[in-house]
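Example record for the data management plan.
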Amino acid sequence: MTLDHEDGAVRAPAPPPDEMTSFVGRRREVGQVRQALADSRLVTLAGPGGIGKTWLALQVAGKVRRSFPDGVLVAELASLSDPDEIVLLQTLREYGRQRLAASGEEAALRERHRDWCQQLARRLAAEWFGPDQMRWFARLRREQSNLRAALEYCATEPGQARAGLRLAAALWFNWSGPGSVAEGRRWLDRLLALDSGPSPERAHALFTHAWLAVVQGRSRAAARCWEEYRTVVADLESDSHLERRSETLAGLVALMAGDCSAAVPRLETALSRHEAAGDLGLAAVTSFMLALACFSLGDPAGHAHAERCLDLGESHQAPWSRSRGLWITGLAHHLGNRPDRARTRLRASLALIRSALRDWPLFHDPWVSHCLEVLAWCAEREGQAERGATLLGAAEATWELAGATRSGFDFLQAGHERCQVSLREELGEDRFLTAFRAGERLTPDQAVAYALEEGTSPPLPERQVAPATPLSRRETQVARLVAKGLTNRDIAAELVISARTAEGHVERILSKLGFTSRSQIAAWSVRGE
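Corresponding structural encoding:
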């Protein structure tokens, strides 16, 4: 079968011939493929173009089709230009599901799949704070569909919600990195509603939910999770791991509420307990938050906590964690009126984040926005007013795309407002808005390149055409219709395609852009017009 790129339909070819012309010197390859088909019902032939993969596939299909009551399908991948579409054609996926259901083995296989994903999550929890962070990013990106399938199984199969809580909670590093903070919170919301009894799994899920709310700047959601977490832990047998996490959450909630005097002692207690337990990953996270709390109070101890955060990331060769340490020490240097050092650390943080995410959308990591924000403060302090306004606009745009906000930390919000007032006074309202809007129109990749001063190109002018997107022409059409508020059925009618095809386009758009909601597609499309 071949894939039609215009409407996404999969069309079946004529059946393979009874006997192809003789393959001189290819019997060994035919035998190998036939052996592979004995072990697996899906075999992919890979290699450079022109070596005869298609003919080999057809030759094997002609020879073995009588061995399979439902026939043999040949899927041509050569015409596909998008790697995402090559992962597994939807028709083959659905066919496999139908055959699995008919075999009577679906329930057992889905349980095994869930167990495999939980094993992966356990390994992640044990290894995330170390030199393999980048490899974990790449691995998790490849496994997003598997993880979602396992979570969906847990959310829909009776009696599996608690296993789903265990899985979703253990994936906190995934949600904070290659996954999506918003998606993680949605899974946790859904699973927490399905299993309300006190359990260690619920406690861990509430901790992860609260942490993701902190990352998003959702102070009230974090506080609600903390209150329930405290109640659940009190109902369980004494668990030092849960109890020291309780101190961390108490400090984070106080920090987000602006009560830094209460936050500091709770976070200091948590830090000492994490270090005593050898949980240096959580110690690095706590040092980061402790530094922020001290900065809010004007306490010089914040600088030592910031350096501790960076030292932990560097000593464990953990690049993603190191990016946070570079940001917090960059902020420390800015507050200490050392702009050159601040700028160097913040740019290094941005470069590390970009390296970690690679071809994943940059706004997936809200700390891109944090870096752009504080670099704007540095530019304002050094008298680069227009650059500062442009960076503020870029930060605002990436906050919106990430579905996050800086408002969870009063200290950062106050710094933003002070910088904005200063820039408006320096530039005047018209010049400030021109520079700010130029920053808003930058894509996240362009904003990072601008912040890193890669090249001398100015920000996008007022009427410049938006840059090329990863979407096909048809997907771009669909994204515009989503932005207009059309449902999948409406889109299908507008483009004269099936509703199923329209749904497939929307799913591919979400996957390519790393989005989890139609509203994000709409915001992206409007910004690109």
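Summary line stored alongside the record: Confidence is low (pLDDT under 50) at residues 1-24, 460-467.
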